[in-house]
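ok new one. same drill as before - structure tokens go in, u give me an amino acid for every spot. 461 of them this time. try not to just spam alanines like last time pls lmao
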């Protein structure tokens, strides 16, 4: 990858900025072999097929003497077309049986799902496979044990190089993650424009994928290059294991760009609620930005207000929030409703993967396996029990807005930032769009085939 290290970068690089201040927000694509050393990312993936199939083998003992209904024999149909496919119908029926505590029906439906499901089949079979695991855990009260087994397998199978290659391929074929990066970077750069000492607090598990393009933008600013302190807050063990390598690559890239740079890591936290202002080391002369990528959904629902208030106490110039668009906050009170929403969300996600990757793609398989732990955690784990200190309760953009409005005021994205995001989406296949909400709503939405999937917003005190 050829990157500009001088102040006067050529206007041909990211040419859609050529008529305004060069910010270099949209990252150029490169194949994994061509990437510079700073390309540092990882993803929570499961390389152990046996672990994912463990409960499927367990289910073989639940056979009942009945034959398969012809209603559910359509496993060879086109993948993930709509919510009325056999997998969705059968899974929803099983979720209702669980809610009703109808043990006979539960056993019958779990057996049927086990016969039809496969992590290597079409989209319906894959959905059946991964949701079957969660349903079995829910039925047998084994969610915590299964979740810990999957977590352990993910950590053992994790390596920097394989994870880096996987996430870069994902970013090449889908804007699922880059959408939030580009919009958040634009808002941060505009909020911190003219400041000489910047402190970005990165509360995410995206392993600094977001920051090389921001560093490049700072290097090409018209005024003096500011000093950047980047504090990365890490709560996931799988992320901690590669932070040393991340630090080295980020520091090397900052030197290449000529940006004075300080890199700090805060780890050892069980959950974000343990984070304090003192631990972050914010100085009075620093212009602070707080960046949350998929972080708030891992805070217990009852603690979210306190965490947002802690952000406010830092006196930030801007707070950027990126979350996936789903409401999975109510599984304790309405399991069927939460299950239906979880199934809707992951059907969209699996459909997107199916159309973005080649059918035999190993990267697609690893990303699909990554979902299994999230599905088990959402549907089969009690947040009050020890599941690693975090939960995974997504909420919709309007719900996050209501929470954030208690402490912050909305920052609307400028035309320049919106143009950056649109330029990014033009690089991908048809089906992706940017949606700007109505007058009384906030943020920007990434939509896949007209369905909102990711929400990004910016806020100030």
């Amino acid at each position: 990858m050829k990157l500009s290290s001088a102040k006067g970068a050529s206007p041909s690089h990211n040419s859609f900025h050529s008529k305004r201040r060069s910010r270099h927000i949209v990252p150029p694509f490169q194949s994994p072999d061509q990437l510079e050393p700073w390309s540092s990312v990882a993803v929570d993936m499961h390389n152990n097929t046996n672990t994912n199939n463990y409960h499927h083998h367990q289910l073989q003992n639940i056979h009942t003497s009945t034959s398969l209904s012809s209603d559910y024999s359509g496993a060879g149909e086109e993948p993930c077309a709509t919510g009325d496919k056999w997998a969705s119908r059968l899974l929803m029926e099983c979720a209702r049986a669980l809610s009703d505590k109808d043990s006979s029906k539960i056993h019958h439906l779990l057996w049927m799902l086990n016969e039809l499901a496969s992590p290597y089949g079409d989209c319906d079979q894959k959905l059946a496979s991964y949701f079957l695991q969660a349903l079995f855990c829910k039925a047998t009260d084994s969610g915590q044990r299964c979740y810990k087994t999957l977590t352990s397998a993910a950590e053992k199978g994790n390596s920097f190089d394989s994870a880096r290659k996987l996430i870069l391929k994902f970013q090449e074929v889908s804007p699922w993650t880059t959408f939030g990066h580009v919009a958040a970077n634009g808002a941060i750069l505009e909020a911190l424009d003219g400041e000489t000492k910047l402190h970005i607090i990165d509360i995410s598990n995206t392993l600094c994928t977001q920051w090389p393009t921001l560093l490049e933008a700072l290097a090409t600013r018209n005024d003096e290059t500011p000093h950047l302190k980047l504090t990365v807050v890490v709560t996931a063990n799988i992320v901690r294991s590669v932070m040393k390598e991340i630090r080295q690559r980020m520091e090397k890239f900052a030197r290449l760009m000529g940006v004075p740079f300080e890199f700090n890591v805060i780890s050892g936290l069980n959950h974000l609620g343990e984070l304090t202002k003192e631990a972050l080391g914010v100085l009075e002369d620093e212009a602070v930005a707080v960046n949350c990528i998929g972080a708030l959904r891992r805070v217990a629902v009852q603690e979210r207000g306190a965490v947002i208030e802690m952000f406010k106490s830092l006196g930030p110039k801007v707070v950027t929030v990126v979350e996936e668009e789903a409401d999975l906050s109510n599984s304790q009170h309405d399991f069927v409703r939460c299950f239906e929403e979880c199934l809707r969300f992951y059907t969209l996600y699996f459909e997107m993967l199916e159309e973005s990757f080649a059918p035999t793609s190993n990267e697609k398989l690893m990303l699909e396996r990554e979902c299994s732990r999230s599905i088990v955690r959402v549907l089969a784990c009690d947040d009050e029990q020890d599941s690693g200190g975090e939960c995974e309760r997504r909420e919709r953009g309007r719900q996050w807005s209501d929470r954030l409005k208690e402490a912050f005021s909305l920052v609307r994205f400028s035309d320049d930032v919106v143009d950056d995001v649109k330029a990014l989406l033009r690089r991908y296949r048809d089906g992706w769009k940017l949606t700007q909400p109505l007058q009384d709503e906030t943020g920007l939405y990434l939509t896949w085939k007209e369905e909102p999937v990711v929400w990004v917003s910016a806020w100030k005190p």
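The beta strands are 197-204, 227-233, 261-266, 287-293, 318-324, 409-411, 432-435, 444-448, 451-460. and btw The mean pLDDT is 81.
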